[in-house]
Amino acid sequence: MTAEASTLDTPLKKLVGEKTAKALAGHLDLHTAGDLMYHFPRRYDERGEHTDIRALDVGEQVTVLAQVQRTAVRPMRQRRGNLLEVTVGDGSGGTLTLTFFGNQAWRERELRPGRWGLFAGKVTDFRGKRQLNGPEYVLLGDRTDGEAAATEQIEEFAGALIPVYPAAAAVPTWVIARCVRVVLDTVAPPEDPLPADVRASRNLVGLGGALREIHRPSSREELYRARRRLKWDEAFAVQLTLVRRKHQAAASPARARPARAGGLLDAFDARLPYELTGGQRDVGAEIAADLARRHPMHRLLQGEVGSGKTVVALRAMLQVVDAGGQAALLAPTEVLAAQHYRGMLDLLGPLAQAGELGAAEHATRVELVTGSLGAAARRRALAEVASGAAGIVLGTHALLYEGVDFADLGLVVVDEQHRFGVEQRDALRAKAEQPPHVLVMTATPIPRTVAMTVYGDLEISTLSQLPRGRSPIASHVVPAAEKPAFLDRAWRRLREEVANGHQAYVVCPRIGDSTTGAEEEPPAVDDTGRRPPLAVTEVAPLLADGPLHGLRIGVLHGRLPADEKDAVMRSFANGELDVLVATTVVEVGVDVPNATMMVVLDADRFGVSQLHQLRGRVGRGSAPGLCLLVTEATEGTSARERLDAVASTTDGFKLAELDLEQRREGDVLGAAQSGRRSHLRLLSLLRDADLIRDARAEAITLVEEDPDLTRQPALAASVAALVDADRAEYLEKG
User: Which of 252-261, 326-335, 462-471 has the lowest mean pLDDT?
Assistant: First the structure.
């Protein structure tokens, strides 16, 4: 195949041979020249620079650039033959032992001291020494030693900067580098889809040059310019997708739901037992203005745990009811849906008793629709919803089922929206004659760049002020392995809280009974052979017979039948239980003001934001809250540092930034969720905030001039390739 005939769409088997192409496809999901061009190096090594062998983790599949320091041959004890041990170093003082079994005198001659090479394998530990058993390797050309290196082997590493690719054991980095060289030499440079004026105004290099330099950089400066251009493409594609969606939504018609003086909302405000915070009033005004427009609201309401989002949402729902419509709240669990139901009935009082004796003048009805409703109760609830008598409808996924019909659905509120797929939100929106207004809520603080990138099609409101009367939460790490006495003290501290009339949570990462479920994270056994995470069903009886003997202990997890879950929560809320041993089912929405203490077992098995959510369950009343993070992670490990950071601050936005630092960007941008390879590889939501902001500004300008990109067909195709249908759905889901 000629160079002119080869493009980024050319199958790799036509360029690198069938056997290599099959390995690239099977192990790395790379099928075309374009797939390989967008398989960017993970890092770049430079001969003479160290790669810090001391930082390698046991069990990690690695590629290291190192220099042979010495070799030794000794007979094997268990079988015939010799063992070759090669010690390599990286210039930092760290060393790694390479072991080769069998009589391989040629390898000893090849791996002589002074030679540099790339060595790939799985890190193991033998008597305190890091080693690679039988690693794959390629030696780098070093013509100063008087030996001409094989051109075939070293040409892909001719530059000063050596690319190290995400690789597989069967396809090491040097095989990928060799294939990249073939593609660069035979495939015509792609057409640049970025408008020339954007390239010029933002000082961006051309696409063809960027792809060549990122794989075979001529200098650090050129590599920086190449990465900046390719990051721009990723950011621009995402922002164009979101800005176009926002533009289309703004053009859709919706029924205006303006506030009505002297109606249900005014009556509710008059009976509220406390004063709204300034933040609640300001955000409420933003939402009220959105609801009064003839285009559907798409707003994200984010706020710290306990910042009062539910009251803001309820006031919006009442405004819609005042305007003759209905409002539905979608909650991720029956526990949370039932709690919202009880909480709203308490707040509304006579305002929720339409048709009953003693109802207020402007009253409506509140209905709860969940999968566990009995047949008779379900028929009655659905009739109330269909007739419009129920102005406010709360529920779980059961709201989405066929047969749940609304008279006039005007507002959809999605609580903890990250737990719902876009198709679920759309299914509820489809139950309205015209697109309803949509308010999505999250208690997980969102860093600014994530908000701009993942929620760019939504207007964003933030509640940062906690209501009066909320108490501070103190958090401490309990190092159970290093200081077992600290754990004993934790259980005594819990008994003291109960003796003072308060209640406590004990949270475990797993349900137990060796069955996995949605709440079970992370997996029960990991690669390092650590014990399985502690489980609710195993811990509860141990506590009841041991340190918490005599206390009233309840158990709550996602596999309990719905009526049993509700009964347990009611008992805890009513003070009939002292301690609730639970999974993360208590992470969101559970509100028991008398609960003042939480003990999180195996806290290192949870994410930063998740721990912040969990501890928000305590300190919700007038008494201060205490959260103890129990871990066997030792001092100096990344897991321990993460827990220390959580204990050091209650600022959810700081923790969200930390969470983002420790997660792969692909998880944030959805590559993991879509289950498909994504070309969004380089963009860092933390480090590239300015670039993302600039890309959004350019996207807004372009969409205002050309909403469907009809004058930019190459750009439209490029955006579609970078943000495919699955990815676009994920970005909308958030």
Answer: 462-471
